[in-house]
Automatic annotation (TrEMBL):
Transmembrane segments: 27-49, 69-90, 140-159, 205-230
Protein name: Coproporphyrinogen III oxidase
Organism annotation: Patiriisocius marinistellae
Molecular function terms from GO: high-affinity sulfate:proton symporter activity
InterPro entries: CysZ-like, CysZ/EI24
Primary subcellular site in the record, as a coarse category: membrane
GO terms under biological process: cysteine biosynthetic process; sulfate assimilation
Amino acid sequence: MVKNIAKGIKAYLGTFKLISQLGLWKYFGVPILISFITALLIGFSAWGLSDNIGGFIAKIWFWDWGKETFTTISEFLGGAIVIAIGLILYKHIIMAFSAPFMSPVSEKIEHHLLGQKHTHRETTNTAQLIRGIRINVRNLVLELILTVPLLLLSFIPILNLVTTVLVFIIQAYYAGFGNMDYTLERHFKYRESINFVKSNRGVAIGNGIIFMAMLFIPVIGILIVLPLSVTASTTETVRLIHESGKLESKNLTSEILSH
């Protein structure tokens, strides 16, 4: 698992160079706009709802002493909860609606790595969008089921150190899942793709760790997160599919062999 996580992270090396080499930046305009607008909406929601949620949490403190301090902490926790859930919604929204733009990027990278033109089944933009929505709605529901109880447990001192790490890993896994599916949708059906990612969850987590980390970089993070994460995910996913025997090619380039 740890080795595969490291591979998912290592795949980010050279992504800027590969994007520029293949002239892929033009494909990221609309996804970047989607990412920016979604981030703004979630940010304003967190700002507006933190006081309300904080006030609701503060009601559990019945005593007068320390009430002001607890209210302040509650407002902070309220904002943290909104941001945590907002990040979950954010990544699934941008991944679902960016599918028609990211799939061609993934395809071009795959052709570059394998040196062949017809390595997959044909899919339309509509099919890619439907597939993206289907995958991300499924992942969103599962992620919320796993994350909400951990967020509630985070109110317990000391235990919140563990739950914070677990929430981050869960978010990373589903972020990597979404990035991998831009490649998988050309080679596997819906259920097969889910099983494939489960079998390679370490790579998904590694990809998602950098994805999530970039979101904490003000402004720039949300602009570059998709280009870099999708590129890194594609190179690693193509390697995994090739190793599984699904892709047969003797023309692998040095980029994929180096992994």
